[in-house]
Design goal:
About 35% of the residues lie in helices and about 20% in strands. By secondary structure, it is an alpha/beta fold. The chain has two domains: about 110 residues, 2-Layer Sandwich (60s Ribosomal Protein L30, Chain: A), CATH 3.30.1330.30; about 160 residues, SPOUT methyltransferase, trefoil knot domain (Alpha/beta knot), CATH 3.40.1280.10. The strands form two sheets. Strands 8-7-6-11-9-12-10 form a seven-stranded parallel sheet. A five-stranded mixed sheet has the order 1-4-3-5-2. Strand 6, helix 6 and strand 7 form a beta-alpha-beta unit. Helix 6 runs parallel beside helix 11. The termini are far apart.
Length: about 280
């Protein structure tokens, strides 16, 4: 297996991995250059199993045996063209800007996003999506990853994100999702909130989760759920925009007790996904 030792944190061959903690830089570079980062052996395996192609690997020496079979399978073995860079942990930390405690990173080619109608039609093995989550302007990558993990666990067929929503393929989102971002189909819904009209045209009832005087209880929605349901979840601070609320078919509220009026958006998503599962 061809291995390339690295000792210089400024080695230009490793430009994909420089300063990964700079969120603004990653937002600018990842979509433009068509790459994202997969961190840790579990996530890397799930990414490649989903058909995503690695462009290079960066790892500590001790992780080579664990990933030897994968490296060979994706063309990083003998005669392959995917480079594998290996360095000491202090060098890797200097390159990436954080402690690489999961031992391995892969710079992955970013797949093209699918049109909304195609994505939803292909869900459930071609039977079509029945449950969809729509994330409006959720900017915390941890929340995005947690919502996608809940979507995978609780039967949501697809996730749609608005233009200003955090990137589901950002390193932290991928890690928090435990790689389920490669399992749950997702794409961007544009324009916003006008794109909700497309969901209605496809037969979805659009339910916005928000605190509103005219909101119906989640219990009532779960007691008589529509065949196709799109649950819209809003940003962490202000909740859903007026445009999203106006475009929805109904507003839904999770019943609360103990003087609590709302949950973190990731927690709220899990409750709503479970209650409306099919």
């Amino acid at each position: 297996m061809p291995i390339y030792p690295v000792t210089d944190p400024a080695d230009e061959r490793l430009a994909d991995y420089f300063r990964l903690t700079d969120v603004a830089l990653r937002r600018r570079l990842e979509p433009a250059q068509g790459l994202y980062m997969a961190e840790g052996s579990t996530v890397i395996r799930r990414a490649t199993a989903a058909g995503h192609r690695p462009r290079s690997f960066l790892m500590a020496q001790r992780w080579l045996p664990d990933l030897a079979d994968l490296l060979d399978a994706v063309g990083a073995g003998a005669g392959g063209d995917v480079p594998v860079y290996v360095g000491e942990l202090d060098v890797l930390e200097a390159i990436t800007g954080f402690h690489l405690h999961r031992g391995a990173l892969a710079a992955m080619h970013r797949p093209a996003l699918r049109p909304v109608a195609d994505l939803l039609a292909g869900a459930r093995d071609g039977a079509g999506a029945r449950r969809v989550a729509v994330l409006e302007d959720i900017v915390d990558h941890t929340n995005v990853g947690a919502i996608i993990r809940s979507a995978a666990a609780l039967g949501v067929d697809a996730v749609l994100v608005t233009p200003r929503c955090a990137d589901p393929l950002y390193r932290r989102s991928v890690r928090v999702s435990m790689g389920t971002v490669f399992q749950v189909p997702w794409t961007r819904l544009e324009p916003w909130p006008g794109g909700l009209a497309q969901l209605k045209d496809l037969g979805f009832t659009v339910a916005a989760l928000a605190l509103a005087d005219d909101a119906v209880s989640l219990d009532d929605l779960a007691a008589s759920p529509p065949e196709r349901l799109a649950l819209v979840l809003g940003t962490e601070g202000d909740g859903l925009s007026r445009g999203a609320l106006a475009a929805a078919d109904l507003v839904v509220r999770i019943p609360m007790s103990g003087g609590v009026d709302s949950l973190n958006v990731a927690a709220a998503s899990a409750v709503a996904f479970w209650a409306t599962r099919v």
